[in-house]
Amino acid sequence: MIPYITAGLAPALGLLCFFYLKDEYEQEPLSSVIRCFLFGALLVFPIMFIQFAFQEEGYFQSIYMQAFIQTAFIEEILKWLIVMLAVFHHVHFNQRYDGIVYATAVALGFASAENILYLISNGVETAFFRAIFPVSSHALFGVVMGYYIGLAKFNPKRRNTILIYSFIFPFLLHSVYNLILLTQQSWLFYLVPFMIFLWVLGLRKVKKANLKQGAYFQKNIAS
Fewest C-beta in 10 Å: which of 23, 53, 69, 153? Predict the structure, then answer.
């Protein structure tokens, strides 16, 4: 069991450390980040139950329903709700980049638990593939979600609109990822460039969040 847990956790923890250390101004308390990670991991069980229940009722027979609703919508809306309920109004959520840290922690908590269960069922030899594609994609969906949640936190006039973006964009990205896997025979040919796009997008959001926070600090110092 230990090899499965280690192989399942390692990529998620590595990615979480990477994005946590990308915060250039004020890193979040580890206790808050770990709590979000654990909340994300616990999400696996209600998500599996909901997906199984709907599938048993025959709601997800279409490939598009499976791609958009069975996985992308259910997973992203519950991750979004956890971030909103657990940390959006928390005192430690005090800068724009914090949204990325917390949303990525929730996403990677979910990805690590899902990964461990998958490795137990399919073998530890699939760990490298899982790290490169599913775990990394969940992290990057979390980065996009967290970027917009961070924007919404400090933009009360447009908060509701930006919060919609914070769900819609990762949901659509997740749906495209699923569609590639479900509809393309040579899925690797399409998935590799899509993952490169996700990494470029995610790292740009990281850079923009830090730049916005830097501008905010300079403005406060000047005033």
Answer: 53
125-153 residue pLDDT tens = 888 889 999 999 999 999 999 999 999 99
Integer Cα distance of 75 and 10 in angstroms: 21
Per-residue model confidence as pLDDT tens digits over 169-200: 999 999 999 999 999 889 999 999 999 999 99
The helix (run of H) or strand (run of E) holding residue 64 is helix 63-65
Task: Please choose, from the candidates 31, 23, 69, the residue with its C-alpha nearest in 3D space to the C-alpha of residue 50.
Answer: 69
Residue among 5, 3, 31, 34 nearest 116 (CA): 5
- Of 76, 71, 77, the closest CA to residue 179 belongs to 71
